């Protein structure tokens, strides 16, 4: 107990220190502060760049479709929906095994290897002569991209503490909007400058340029993804010193983030017997399916004067929504860590997209009102990341349980998302869908209702403590666990608040 934190010996923070803590971090120990700075330069940089190129290569299909691919490859009926579904099916199939492979093999090997291969296949899309070739390519690309999001979330949760994770996870998520924005600008640029050059259409050049941008970032992942604090990537030693690794291991003990010990049948059983994956499955699935509601904005622009036929406008105008998404990501990230709890952001963040979908469900006559509806839908993007950060911390007592839960939620949600858009947003009804925005409005309503239900469950039901079961079979009770969680200042608030989401201080400790 001698090594417990002595809160009274810590210097009082200045007003600027408190402000700086909210905006970014205010780590008191110089050695630890230097370590987190190095971690940001290495891990956060490659996490954000990797997710940026993931969405650059994922969003290009919509931009290419709206920029001439539909006509060149003779798309018919709902073939565009089928193309999107092929990617999603691959994404679903790869989610759970890919997340487990990230843990079992090593994130510094698995994640960049998948990225290198999918980048090559994205470039191969430029040579497609028919939609059936694209079906196969997009399935495999989805299969390989499936590990990127849950895998990197798991890695971030292995290195960052509760006062740091919220900002990093939401910023990581925000790069999806940056990638999608950039894809729109890139398609507009290549279509006007390269359309028809060397016998390739502008949409085909988009795939090639995506590959040129993505491949160096994919290769850099082998060197910048640090593995985990207990299994450090040797190629990352150029920016992580021995004292950094020791600091990381001490921090993970402090934050009760258990190191990986290997997957066992008991870990799977205990994880799925817990109420946590099943309770979070409902709102997270509603988020994933509902999130797609803004993706049809370019199809509306393509069918609506005065933008009809203007490829540049069709690709550029939706980027304003992605800019709004980035802004809201920063707001939610700061608010989440500053409040010391995740649930208010998850709850409040559901209202803007709910209103946006209600607006589009009424399909108002004024285009300006439709714009407002679409743009409100873009604000939904970061709330899913906040929820997964919350889950990362609830399941902190087992690295394997964190991976299983995150992988399960993404797999389950995208299993439904693989077929739901075909029913909700059939391409043959574009741009005015009979049921589409009514259904997605209902999904966001369910998301909002689910958050207080989860809070009640967290207060009344136990949270599994894998560490206690594996390492402390003769535990002396809850009081010793509570005593060990006396973390200073914001860390104390987050360590409890992120898990229990209490309003009045009453809570259920992890059991």
Automatic annotation (TrEMBL):
GO terms for cellular component: membrane. Residues 470-489 have a biased composition (Basic and acidic residues). Keywords: Membrane, Transmembrane, Transmembrane helix, Transport. It comes from the Eukaryota. It is a multi-pass membrane protein. It is found in: Membrane. It holds the Pfam family MFS_1. One of its GO terms (molecular function) is transmembrane transporter activity. Residues 470-493 are annotated as: Disordered. InterPro entries: MFS (IPR011701), MFS_dom (IPR020846), MFS_trans_sf (IPR036259). The chain crosses the membrane at residues 83-103, 109-128, 135-157, 200-225, 275-301, 313-335, 341-360, 372-391, 439-458. Residues 43-462 form the Major facilitator superfamily (MFS) profile domain. Belongs to the major facilitator superfamily. Allantoate permease family. PANTHER family: MAJOR FACILITATOR SUPERFAMILY (MFS) PROFILE DOMAIN-CONTAINING PROTEIN, PERMEASE-RELATED. This is Major facilitator superfamily (MFS) profile domain-containing protein. It comes from Kwoniella dendrophila CBS 6074.
